[in-house]
Design a protein that fits this description.
Elements lengths: L25 E4 L6 E3 L5 E3 L4 H9 L4 E2 L6 H7 L3 H6 L1 E4 L7 H9 L1
Antiparallel strand pairs: 1-2, 1-5, 2-3, 4-5
Length: 109
């Protein structure tokens, strides 16, 4: 305990050593196209996904669609029509409670 009666944290939080822009947050599935892997800002990291990343994404929860306003920049840059936006789905890969180590592993999938 500190002199003011408060407890010290059991561990110090070090700054992240991984580039946050390189962490895959979304896996986008579009008919007739390879899967897109996007970061938190919905910028394309790569236009392919490993079978392991696809399996991981499918275990994370339900698929959603890229038809809301948060997806406008991505949809416009990829030329998705209104119909394609309703048919194109994505999985969220990051829940927000992952450790840095888990995020590092995610970047390798």
């Amino acid at each position: 305990m500190q002199p003011d009666g408060k407890r010290r944290p059991t561990h110090e939080t070090a700054p992240m050593t991984i580039d946050p822009g390189s962490i895959p947050y979304y896996l986008v599935l579009r008919a007739g196209w390879p899967p897109y892997v996007l970061n938190a800002d919905r910028q394309v990291l790569r236009r392919q996904a490993s079978p392991l990343l696809l399996a991981f994404a499918r275990t994370r929860g339900a698929i959603a669609h890229v038809d809301d306003s948060a997806w406008n920049v991505f949809s416009d840059s990829e030329g998705l029509t209104v119909v394609e936006r309703r048919e194109t789905g994505f999985f969220s890969l990051v829940a927000g409670n992952e450790t840095e180590r888990q995020l590092q592993l995610l970047t390798t999938l």
